Amino acid sequence: VQLQASGGGLVQAGGSLRLSCAASGRTFGVMSWFRQAPGKEREFVAAIRLRGGATGYGDSVKGRFTISRDNAKKTVYLQMGTLEPEDTAVYYCAAAPYVILSALSSESSYDYWGQGTQVTVSS
Fold first, then answer.
1. Is the pLDDT assigned to residue 108 strictly greater than 90?
2. How far apart are CA 101 and CA 116, in angstroms?
3. CA 99 to chain centre
4. Contact predicate 110/32, CB 8 Å
5. Strands (DSSP E) found in the chain
6. pLDDT at 27
7. Which parts of 1-123 fold into alpha helices (H)?
8. How far apart are CA 68 and CA 97, in angstroms?
9. Is the predicted pLDDT of residue 26 greater than 90, yes or no?
10. Integer-rounded Cα radius of gyration of the chain
11. Residue 98 burial (CB < 10 Å; 0-12/13-18/19+)?
12. Which of 11, 14, 34, 122 is most buried (CB neighbours < 10 A)?
């Protein structure tokens, strides 16, 4: 089982970036994004149920980020808009067979993690 995250990079404040996370080896029920900035704890960003498409977002990204999926490609996307320097972090994708809606934001809900992709937003 492998989660391959990509799409990170350097962008100016106010800009946009799209991250991708491709799963291989099995099909998951839920995929999500977390991020970790230097010196800070890992933070929930967004999650999506691959069947049905229910989503959840962290408070700091609501209205700016959108998570979507392509079930045929076993890939989840994170469209990030109106980026701020505070969004600078390593972004990790995670996956699990099933997660109840109330637990989407909990790290412990996820069994598999990708390697992370760096997003840097300059002011």
1. yes
2. 24
3. 15
4. yes
5. 2-6, 9-12, 17-24, 30-36, 43-49, 55-57, 65-70, 75-80, 89-96, 112-113, 117-122
6. 86
7. none
8. 17
9. no
10. 13
11. exposed
12. 34
